[in-house]
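**Protein record**
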Amino acid sequence: MPVVEFDYNDFINLLGYKISKKNLIERLPMIGADFDKAEGDQISIEFFPDRPDLASVEGIARASRSFFNFEPGLKKYSIKKSDIVINVDSSVKKVRPYVITALVKNVKMTDELIASLMELQEKLHVGLGRNRKKVAIGVHNFEPVESPFIYKAVDPDSIQFVPLNKVESMTMTEILEKHEKGVDYAHLLKDYDKHPLILDKNNNVLSYPPIINGTLTEVTPFTTDLFIDVTGLDKKAINYALNIVTTSLAERGGQIFSTVVKEGRKTYVSPNLTPVKRKLSLNYVNKILGTNMNMNKVIDCLEKMGYGTSESGKDIINVEIPAWRADILHEIDLIEDVSIGYGYDNFESEYPKALTFGKRISSYDFYEALRTIMIGLGFNEVNTFTISNEADEFEKLGLKKAERVEIENPIGEDFSCLRVGLIPSLLKILSENRHHPLPQQIFEVGIIVDSKYKNRFKLGFAKIDAKASFTECKSLCESIMRDAGIKTMINDFEHPGFVKGRCASIFYKNEEIGFFGELHPKTISNFELEHPVIAFEIYSDLIYQ
C-alpha cells in the first residue's frame, strides 16, 4: 500500500485548522489507512490503494477538513478559462489515444510542494497508471512554451531533443536505449513504429509520453506556472489523475485554468471538476449496515467524507461525488463511506444469533494426507500464484492456447490469465532458484481453473537434477498412488512439453486424471533451466474418495 510521509506543521498549514498531533495520529487512520510511524514532526500513513486522492499531503488535508468536521461537504475549486489549446492528431490513436491538459498558475514552489508533487506523480504512475501503461503524467514549466500544442505520433528517429537529466540532444530511439527512464519504460512502446510526442507552437518538445519530459520545460524552484499533461489508454483514468494533481496544487494556493482539447471535430475542456451525481437509498444503507439511521444522520456521515448531499423524498439522498474520487463505482461504495463517517467504533458488537461449530471439509483432510506423502518422499511444499500468463501456461510448453480465464485489465503481462496447470508455476520456482545446489524437488497442492471455468484442485511436483529420468518419475508416481491407496493405470502419452516416449498418462477408474514424464530440452530452456527436469500433475479432486 502507498505510504505518504508528511511534516505535521506543513499539514496544519494546509489544513487551516488546529488539531493536536496525538489526535491526528489516533483518528486519521479511521478514514481508511494504517498508521506507519511518527518520528518527531514526520508522520507516515499507509493509505489503502483504492484512494489515489489520498496519495499526497494535500489530498489528506482536504479529506481531513471534512472528516474532522471543520468543513464538511463537497470541496469546490474555482477554474478560470485560458486560451490554451492542444490538438490531437489521429496518428496517436493506435499508440496512446488520449490526452488532457491543464494550467495551474501562481504556484509557490516550496520544498514541501516539490517533494509532495514528485511523490504524488510517482504514486499515481504506479497505482492508477499501472506503471505508466494506463496513465502517464507530465508536469512542465509553462513559461518557455506557447499554445497551441499538438499531440501526435512520429518516427522515433525523426526528432531530437534534450531529455530531463541529460545535456546532449538525443533521438527518441536513443532515449529508449540510453536514458535510464527510456530503458525502464521502452517496453510500453516496443510494438509501435511511431511514438507519441507533445510539441508547442514552435515545435519545442514538452513531453515524450510515457517516457520522459524535455529539459526545456523542467520545473525549477522559480517556476510559478505549471502546465500539466496526462496521456493514457483510459479516458476515465487520465481524468482522475489530472483532477487529483490539479486540485492538490490548488490546495497549495495555485489557480486552476482550463484548457481546450481538440480531436478532429470533437472539442472538450479539461480539467472537468463537475461532481458525478448518484442516488442513495436510506433503507438500503440501514439494511447493509444493520443500523437505524435517519436521513440527517446519513447525510452527516456522507458530508464527513467530502460528498455533496441533498434530500430527494423520504428515502432517497442525492449524492455529489467529488471529481477526484476514482474509487466510487457502485452504491455500495457510498455505503462503505457512510460507515466510515459513522465510525466503525460506534457500531455495536453482537454475539452470533446461532451457535455453530465449524470443521474442516473432508476433502481437505485428503489433500493434507497428500502433502504428508509428498513431504515423506523428500519434496518441499510451495504455494504459487493462481494468476499466470499465456506464455508460461501454453507457449513455453509448446501447447496451443486453450480455454482459459483472461484478466481484462492486468497489472502486467506476467499476470494476464488464471493458470490451467501447476507445472508452469513449479518450473518458475525452479528457475528463480537456479543459484541453489541440486537436486531440487518441490510440490504443490493448489487450485487451477479448468476449461469449463471451474476451480479444481491438482497435485503436482517437479524435480531438477543431473540424473533425473523418466524411470525415477514413474517410481515416484507409483509411490504416491500406493501411499494414497489409489489403484491407477499408466498408458503412453504424448505432450509437446515432454520428451517423446518419456511421458505417460495416469488413469483412475477409466478416467484420465493426469500425466508425468521427463521434460523436453526446449521446455527446460524456455524456463531458463539447464539440467534434466521431471514433472508430474494430477487432478487430486478426482482421486478423492
User: Anything to note?
Assistant: The two ends are 43 Å apart (CA to CA).
